[in-house]
Amino acid sequence: MLGWQRATQALGVRWREKTLPRAARVSYAIPQVREGIALTFDDGPDSRFTPELLDILAGAGAVATFFLVGRRAVKQPLIVRRMLDEGHVVGSHTWSHRDPRTASAWELLQEYRDGRRAIEDIVGKEVPLFRPPMGHIGLTRRLTAAGREVVAFDIADPHNGHRMDVTDSQSIAAAIEGCSGIVHLAAVSRVVWGERDPALCRKVNVRGTRNILAAVARNRSHNPWVLVASSREVYGQATEFPVRETAPLRPLNVYARSKVDVEHMVASSRRQGVRASAIRFSSVYGSVTDHADRVAPAFVRLAVAGETLHVDGAGTTLDFTHVEDVAAALHTAIELISAGGGPLPPLHLVSGRGITLPELAELAIKAAGEGVVEVGPPRSYDVSTFIGDPARAEQILGWRASIGIEEGIYRLAECFRAADYSGHAGEELLPAGCEDLMIKSDGSRRPVPVPVVATPRSHCS
Q1: Count of CB atoms within 10 A of residue 461's CB?
Q2: pLDDT tens sequence across 243-279
Q3: Domain identity same for 159 and 227
Q4: For residues 296 and 322, what is the distance between their CA atoms, to the nearest angstrom?
Q5: Which of 37, 165, 330, 409 is the most exposed place for a label (fewest CB within 10 A)?
Q6: Three-class SS string for the chain?
Q7: 134 in a domain, yes or no?
Q8: Other beta carbons less than 10 A from residue 237's beta carbon
Q9: The model's pTM
Q10: Each residue of 168-218: pLDDT tens digit?
Q11: In this structure, are 52 and 114 located in the same domain?
Q12: What percent of the chain is modeled with pLDDT above 70?
């Protein structure tokens, strides 16, 4: 809610004040139900799925609260009125589902006002309930909610005119001063980018990690721990499934070889007393702001636009994990390490379930309602099959993936629809949203914050 608090405060309005003007007076909490489940749905109404959902609720004798996007509501007024006729509650979810991270205070307030007024014009009464968009519980939000101060280190967001770059050893040394931990996720993170520019891939991934580990080794006053992102690409083409963390590392491509080198540096730094751990990611997805060529968001974006989904390899089978699950696992790992439970052995974050790329494409089309699949040959540098074993992560972190691929793809499709997203995330190798988060320590016994280098991209709602 903080972005919306700033929006009203910027206009001289005190948040939650009873004397607020009508356009800024808002209820954002529903009285707690002692027994039962409160159902809420965001981003509608949708001409296809919302009527189906209303039929299901009617059949079950259930009611729900619908937080509606204003510009979608004005196109489907009959559906909105049906919600009220059948006993449901409606609230505002802004006019266009604008990302509060990229909007000014005035624009945010206009989003709220326009969305609320559009719905009130349809229903003929006040609509005080409001839910802001972009409610995804990412790593940064989890850490701040736990009382940790998170400091960004982002190449796309210069600080005081200085470019924050993991390949710059001096900026790294200065940035980690006073931090209790570092989550290092900054990287050239796409396999195809590594093939196109091997030198840059190694510079960012290998040199960047070396700079961080060396700076930590020299920083004996705070002795921060380090959590480094690796990848399931390090296994190459495994021969036994599900793949365990003890499987041999046989990288197939430039990116994978850079991550193997990173893991070797992590192991070496531990022998020098650095509290470093590596966590391997597996086909993370779930954000409309992800790279335009990453397979899951690319498929969903193209399907929502009614375009052709190009599949590289009919038999390619991968293990996908949702960004919210990954953020939850990283948060648990951070708390465990901070409490003295680390360093950790190599862990991979996997669902334990594989899906072929054609199946993923068809799932995206089913979620979006349109699109065409075109299957081509596999790329020579891609792993053809990976399905991981989640047992070690469950044993050490108590973590298992909770968002299945079907749910994740349907949610992503709704995000793209709500945003009317048709552009690209950008071609820069370290785009905005991949930041290094630093947790500051004040020397007290209170929960302390962390340096993070590039969080998983936050997402839609």
Answers
A1: 19
A2: 999 999 999 999 999 999 999 999 999 999 999 999 9
A3: yes
A4: 10
A5: 37
A6: CHHHHHHHHHCCCCCCCCCCCHHHCCECCCCCCCCCCCCEEEEECCCCHHHHHHHHHHHHCCCCEEEECHHHHCCCHHHHHHHHHCCCEEEECCCCCCCHHHCCHHHHHHHHHHHHHHHHHHHCCCCCEECCCCCCCCHHHHHHHCCCCEEEECCCCCECCECCCCCCHHHHHHHCCCEEEEEECCCCCCHHHHHHCHHHHHHHHHHHHHHHHHHHHHCCCCCCEEEEEEEHHHHCCCCCCCECCCCCCCCCCHHHHHHHHHHHHHHHHHHCCCCEEEEEECCEECCCCCCCCCHHHHHHHHHHCCCEEEEECCCCEECCEEHHHHHHHHHHHHHHHHHHHCCCCCEECCCCCCEEHHHHHHHHHHHHCCCEEEEECCCCCCCCECCECCHHHHHHHCCCCCCCHHHHHHHHHHHHHHHCCCCCCCCCCCCCCCCEEEEECCCCCCCCCEEEECCCCCCCC
A7: no
A8: 12
A9: 0.69
A10: 998 888 888 888 999 999 999 999 999 999 999 999 999 999 999 999 999
A11: yes
A12: 78
pLDDT at 441: 37
CA distances from 87 to 54, 63, 450 (A): 11, 6, 46
- Same-domain pairing of 216 and 339: yes
Same domain, 97 and 144: no
Judge if 200 and 89 occupy the same domain.
Answer: no
Which residue segment(s) compose the domain that 67 sits in?
2-123
Phi, psi of 89 (to 5 degrees): -110, 140
Number of domains in the chain: 2
Pairing of strands 150-153, 436-440: antiparallel
Let me know whether 161 and 118 are in one domain: no
pLDDT on residue 452: 37
- Is 401 found in the same domain as 438? yes
CATH number for the domain harbouring residue 345:
3.40.50.720
The model's pLDDT over 367-420, given as tens digits with 9 standing for 90+, comes to 998 899 999 999 999 999 999 999 999 999 999 999 999 989 988 887 787 665
Task: Decide if 133 is inside a domain.
Answer: no
Indicate if 170 and 117 belong to the same structural domain.
no
Q: How far is CA 246 from the centre of its chain?
A: 28
What Rg value do the Cα atoms of the chain yield, rounded? 23
- The C-alpha atoms of residue 354 and residue 300 are separated, in whole angstroms, by 18
